[in-house]
Amino acid sequence: MVGLELKNISFSYFNGLILQDIDLSVRPGEMVGLLGPNGSGKTTLIKIASGILRPKKGEVRMDGALISRMERKAVSRRLAVVPQSFNTPFAFTVKEVVSLGRIPFLKPMAEENENDRKIIDSVMELVGVAALKERRFDELSGGERQKVVLAMALAQQPQILLLDEPTVHLDIHHQVQILEMVKQLNISTGLTVLAAMHDLNLSSLYFNRLILLKAGAIQADGTPAQVLTRDIVESVFTTPVIVETHPVTGDPQIIISPINKN
Fold first, then answer.
1. pTM (2 decimals)?
2. Residue 228 Cα distances to 199, 233, 252, angstroms
3. What total number of domains does the chain contain?
4. What does the alpha-carbon distance between residue 119 and residue 79 come to, in Å, rounded to a whole number?
């Protein structure tokens, strides 16, 4: 199993500082949810963790090795990313999109072998898109697309999975499906997971550890009960809330308190 370590990370775009002195370690087999308001730096941190972006300051290590010194194929054999949105410039079928996950393991100009094809078929079956394999990716619903992209990432057979708001724009059914699949993989295979999340309540139910960002800095890091307190949530999101306990799981659940109700 492989862990991920971000040390003293700072990053800025042209319009100012996005991340400031972030220290974050995700231990092998952990499932961590990354929370925060819009613009707090969640997506940027996921891109830096994957090596897509290089920090202005600091370093990222995967199992002790500097990602910046590793070849992209070597990184992709151990780490996979599920972005917020994924589009193809061509009319790819579902199976062709999932097959892209095997590229890090192929030699230049080489075709998939029998083992590659077995992996592709198995992850499509696992994620529940095998029946869609001949459908065009761009004709699928949002929930179906997100499952296909997850299958593509799993075809890489990663030890670390990074997700950038994987449930945004999805209905409740597909949100739960995606998170259930990721959680079961984490439990059954020890897959290390770091996910930028938008929904506080779903994050509380599916992640054992939550990290809360505000203005590019970590405000809280701990269990859902430690992070999702009324004082912390109201401070970070500047919105009045009520924190209740889930009647089945015992996890904290956030209820928005209206500012003005006539």
1. 0.94
2. 12, 6, 7
3. 2
4. 16
